[in-house]
């Protein structure tokens, strides 16, 4: 990350989403020698989605599918614990809910899913 006084923080690659997709991209970028990577992820807990199939099948516990986000974010990668409020592709900046802005060279968007059991009537009770 490079930042001069009076400027906003900049990262060569900025990834929106620290779930499975975002962290997979981080791993690939790091293997190819990209060092300046930041991930925007508001949650403290990482949910390993593929494990939930095993939880549903009774072969794993739900606690096995969760880890602290900091423990799964690779060393040397900047974790920005915030939510994205807006993207300005012309200025190459992301505005966060906190009001902070971050600039980027390349932006990768993989925000994942958010479960809403109430969106389908009766699903939560099923």
Automatic annotation (TrEMBL):
Superkingdom of source: Bacteria
Q: Which residues form the FAD/NAD(P)-binding domain?
A: 11-123
Any single GO BP term: sulfide oxidation, using sulfide:quinone oxidoreductase
InterPro entries xrefs: FAD/NAD-bd_sf, FAD/NAD-binding_dom, Sulphide_quinone_reductase
GO function term, MF aspect, one = sulfide:quinone oxidoreductase activity
Classification via PANTHER family: SULFIDE:QUINONE OXIDOREDUCTASE, SULFIDE:QUINONE OXIDOREDUCTASE, MITOCHONDRIAL
The identity of this protein, by name, is Pyridine nucleotide-disulfide oxidoreductase
